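re: ur msg from earlier - yeah i can do the SN-glycerol-1-phosphate complex, just paste it... oh wait u already did. ok heres what im feeding in:
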Amino acid sequence: MKEIYHNILYSIFEGKKMLAILIDPDKMALQQLSAFIQKVNLSMATHIFVGGSTVEDHLTEALVFELQKHTKLPIVLFPGDITQISEHADALLFLSLISGDNPDYLIKKHISAVAQLRHSNLEVIPTGYVLIENGKETSVEKVTQTKPIPRQNIQQIIDTAKAGELLGMKLIYLESGSGALQPIPAEIICAVKNELNIPLIVGGGIRTAQELEIAYQSGADLVVIGTAFEDDDTFFEELKLVL
Ligand code: 1GP
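and the outut:
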């Protein structure tokens, strides 16, 4: 399946919002997977993202291999590291952490990944990853040793996202961090969306149907939610009220 990006563009053209459910291989036991995925398949989810800041080697491969048996939804890798690349997925967000100044996460890890990607069938989607401060230190911050952009620096956030687009990235991902105390404010989503000509992903700290609605109404094309499902899978029921 090499149509993931095209289908994202097409959904936007049709005015359809997208939801990715994020599964962290470190937090999801394989035995729980089948029951969880049944709920995902019945929900409004359009994508499954797989990844985490730190994941034990081979866990991603095992999880993705199992996942593809249970769902027809596109499986998109959202890796914290090159050890999280699996051939069994459909696409890879080739993330460059453009809000930070750590060369490892801007280009070096990407160079290391090429040996694996050169002959791969994965659809590789270059993605500008923009980390925004949320009130507490997140694992992305710890692992990447970068500082998020303060949420009041709206112009810097806009310019960073736009620079990603001008560099040729195909998606911008505004990230508040997994388990963030607060999601990205509507004002920031709106301001960034107004400047971009490429799809906008928003994630981090979204725990209610209302927060999801606000993200969509502010301009997010695709929203990513992980923790809310990990903490309470009745959240699937709450989501039925959206859209
Ligand atoms: C994290 O944006 C994703 O990278 C999802 O965040 O786990 O807070 O939903 P949550």
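cool cool. DSSP finds ten helices and eight strands in the chain. ping me if u need the other ligands too
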